[in-house]
Structure formats: C-alpha cells, structure tokens
Amino acid sequence: MDKLILGRYIPGQSFIHRLDPRSKLLAMMIFIGIIFWANNLWTNLISFSFVIGLVLLSKIKLSYFLNGLKPMIGLIVFTTLFQVFFAKGGEVYWSLWIFQVTSFGLKQAGIILTRFILIIFFSTLLTLTTMPLSLADAVESLLKPLVYIKVPVHELGLMLSMSLRFVPTLMDDTQRIMNAQRARGVEFNEGNLMQKIKAIIPILIPLFASSFKRADALATAMEARGYQGGNGRTKYRQLSWKLTDTFTILTMCLLGLTLYLLKS
Questions:
Q1: CA separation for the pair 187, 110 (Å, rounded)
Q2: Residue environment code for 122-153, b if the CB has 16+ CB neighbours within 10 A, otherwise e
Q3: Does pTM top 0.70 for this prediction?
Q4: How far apart are CA 225 and CA 251, in angstroms?
Q5: pLDDT given at position 1
C-alpha cells in the first residue's frame, strides 16, 4: 500500500506544487508529443536532464518515481527485448534463427527504454504534485469548449474525480479481503498459473460486491443532497492561471523546438 502511486498526492510547497493543475496537465500532454523527437544521444540526454531537473524541483524522493516504474516493468522489458531481437538494420552482432541483435536494434531499444522511463517519471510527477480533485477540475476546465458540441464535460470530470478518489479505498478493500482469505487458508503465491488465477476469484467477487454497494450509497447521498448535474453549479476550488504557468508552457515549447532541431 505504501508503494501505491495512482491517486496519491504528496503535499509540498515546491515550484511544481504551486503550478496550476491545467498547466501541469498541458505540459504533460506536450511532453508526450515531443518526446518522440528524441531519437539520438543528445536529444535523449536533454530530455532526461530536463525531467530529472523537474524531479529535483518537486523536492520528492526519487524512490516514489522508481515505484511508479514497477507496475510497467513487464511491458518495458518486453518492448525493449522485442526491439533488440527483431529490429533489422546496421551491423549484425549476433544471429540465431529469426533472432538478430544489430546496432540499429540496440539503438532503438535504448530510445524506447528512455521514452518509457521519461513518460512514466513525468506522469508520476503530475500525480504526486497535484491533488486528484484539482486534476479532475483541470480536465473539466480544459474540456469546457466541448460543451458547445453537447459533450457532458462536467459528468466526465465528476467520474474522473470519483475514480481517483476511490482508488486508495479499493486498494484498502482488496488488502482487507486478501487478509481475510489468508486467514481461511487461501494461498495466493503458490501453485501453477491456473491455480494462482483461481485464487484471485475469492478476491474479485467480494470486491465487486463491495464496490457496487459503495456506488449505490454514493448515488443515494448525492440524490439526498439535491445533485442535479453541472448546470448552474459553483465551485469551491477555483483555478488560477499565473505567469509561472505561462512560463511553464513556453519552456515546454522551447524544449520541443530544441528536440526538433537536434533530432536525427
């Protein structure tokens, strides 16, 4: 539970914490777009240095960002090895049947690995320095122009805020159910793959039942308080765009221009 990153906020007074959540969300979207221009040594070094600089500015321990990598380790390793053994081109270092290690494959594997790490670090930085409700408000604010084409922006923001709010609660429920099943003699880490899958069923059924019960209670509470949707509603949390937010977006654009000019 201490390693849970999704939905977790680390309070602080750093420069990153004080930014408007809309600017942080826009910065992440820009970063995900421009990171694909980092396709050589210099562009990757610049991108890596930039992200590490942001991590230091946030004054959050590096261990939190490393924990954010752990759920993606399997995908990262698979994608990297796929590039190593199947990418063709350049000097051949080793070959066996359909597998081949080439200079181009190693280069592509390094680029893919770096992109994964940078995107995960940046998204983890966004999560750790922004309260979930503020992040949901930012999404709703950025999507507000879509109201004119009948997109239910407020409802989307509400669903996002609820989802982020209940992630830690669901994890607590899961841990409690697992402890109860262990007390009854269920072992989750023993046996073959099929036995491990079957052992998950005693967790899923009570977890679904608990989730539906909680959702019904939440709906009843909202109706009792007269919730009518987003029309005419005011907000307790007000977002404020400052000069530092404009500076942040301009910095991301400058980084994108640098990567574009230096890309291979």
A1: 39
A2: bbbbbbbbbbbbbbbbbbbbbeeeeeeeeeeb
A3: yes
A4: 44
A5: 45
